[in-house]
């Protein structure tokens, strides 16, 4: 009976969320409708996590983490593109703000929460330094190339790339992301599998994948894939529907407009956050790190090429370069993440440092 109820809500909630999205898109929401939309958004997030775990169990790691990261990012990129095409000059920095927020949320927020969940459970979180280090190096390179260099180049005015520079950054970002996916899924897949520990082996979860539950059938996995896409479209779309309410609340609180982008990014990344924390609670820290760093990498590697193509139709400047405060936060994040990853083991201290950096990012977004 309990399993039947679980199956029912994971199918019904994404469908209801999609219907709510169709009914509310482009319309002003009342207070009651806004609350209902927020509840459906939360339900769609939980349903997305469930279906992502079904797919991950079927295809195994690291493919499961890759599916969720890429699916969320593709839909997020589509949302950014649609907003920039319809928003005019006020959205000139939207891509930069969204990508930077995604990097800080994933590399500090999700990583910090995952390490916290893992270390509270087993004192020391263990993961594969080779795979995680390669992912971190790719994220750091893409972030610097796309978000830092535009503030120092001289071919275009302001913190922006010239068309040739933007095209180069787009090609390199896409090529680097493709190379990472090849490394993760084919050439060195074992670097991204959960590390076996006495606790995970006792639970049947080590590098041999989850032995504790029967593997879903191909039909079940395909159904979950379709429902995952429906849930993610609903999450991103309902976040956009809620954005006017968020903008009004931010304005009434006297906070900067950039806070709106941070709140929307937090909502969009909720499925990955919950999936990562749940994996960490099962002592599968590697899966959590795959989700976090893979999401950051996909956000840059797919957004920059999309923006480069879209710039053909955009009028006005395309601001990509970070300001000084954000550059300092990015540099500190890369340095701290490197020290976290190199040993292949982390304690409660490392989780606290990452969460402290994440708190600093949120505070400086509110009070720049």
TrEMBL record:
Species of provenance: Nonomuraea montanisoli
Residues forming coiled coils: none
Transmembrane regions: 36-56, 63-87, 99-120, 132-152, 164-182, 221-239, 259-277, 289-313, 319-341, 348-366
Membrane topology reported for the UniProt record: Multi-pass membrane protein
The organism's taxonomic lineage, starting at the top: Bacteria, Bacillati, Actinomycetota, Actinomycetes, Streptosporangiales
Assigned keywords, A-Z: Membrane, Transmembrane, Transmembrane helix
InterPro entries noted in UniProt: Alkaline_pH_Ca-Antiporter (IPR052946), NaCa_Exmemb (IPR004837)
Gene Ontology molecular function, alphabetical: potassium:proton antiporter activity; sodium:proton antiporter activity
Protein's name in the database: Ionic transporter y4hA
């Amino acid at each position: 009976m309990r399993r039947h109820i679980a199956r029912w809500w994971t199918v019904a909630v994404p469908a209801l969320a999609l219907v709510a999205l169709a009914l509310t898109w482009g319309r002003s929401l009342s207070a009651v409708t806004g609350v209902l939309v927020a509840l459906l958004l939360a339900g769609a997030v939980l349903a997305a996590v469930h279906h992502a775990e079904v797919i991950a169990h079927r295809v195994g790691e690291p493919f499961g983490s890759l599916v969720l990261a890429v699916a969320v990012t593709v839909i997020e990129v589509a949302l950014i593109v649609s907003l920039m095409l319809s928003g005019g000059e006020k959205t000139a920095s939207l891509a930069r703000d969204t990508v930077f927020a995604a990097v800080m949320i994933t590399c500090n927020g999700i990583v910090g929460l995952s390490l916290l969940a893992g270390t509270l459970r087993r004192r020391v979180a263990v993961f594969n330094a080779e795979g995680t280090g390669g992912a971190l190096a790719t994220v750091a390179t893409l972030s610097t190339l796309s978000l830092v260099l535009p503030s120092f180049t001289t071919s275009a005015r302001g913190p922006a790339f010239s068309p040739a520079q933007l095209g180069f950054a787009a090609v390199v970002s896409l090529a680097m992301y493709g190379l990472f996916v090849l490394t993760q899924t084919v050439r060195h897949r074992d670097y991204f599998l959960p590390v076996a520990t006495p606790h995970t082996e006792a639970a049947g979860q080590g590098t041999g994948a989850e032995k504790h539950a029967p593997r879903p059938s191909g039909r079940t996995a395909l159904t979950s894939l379709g429902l995952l896409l429906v849930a993610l479209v609903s999450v991103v779309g309902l976040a956009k529907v809620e954005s006017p309410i968020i903008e009004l609340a931010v304005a009434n609180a006297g906070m900067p407009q950039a806070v709106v982008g941070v709140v929307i990014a937090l909502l969009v990344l909720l499925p990955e956050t919950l999936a990562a924390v749940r994996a960490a609670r099962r002592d599968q820290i590697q899966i959590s790190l795959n989700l976090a760093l893979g999401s950051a990498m996909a956000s840059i590697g797919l957004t920059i090429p999309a923006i480069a193509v879209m710039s053909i139709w955009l009028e006005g400047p395309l601001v990509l370069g970070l300001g000084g405060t954000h550059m300092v936060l990015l540099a500190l994040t890369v340095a701290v993440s490197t020290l976290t990853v190199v040993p292949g083991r982390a304690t409660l201290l490392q989780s606290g440092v990452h969460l402290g950096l994440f708190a600093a990012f949120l505070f400086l977004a509110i009070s720049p």
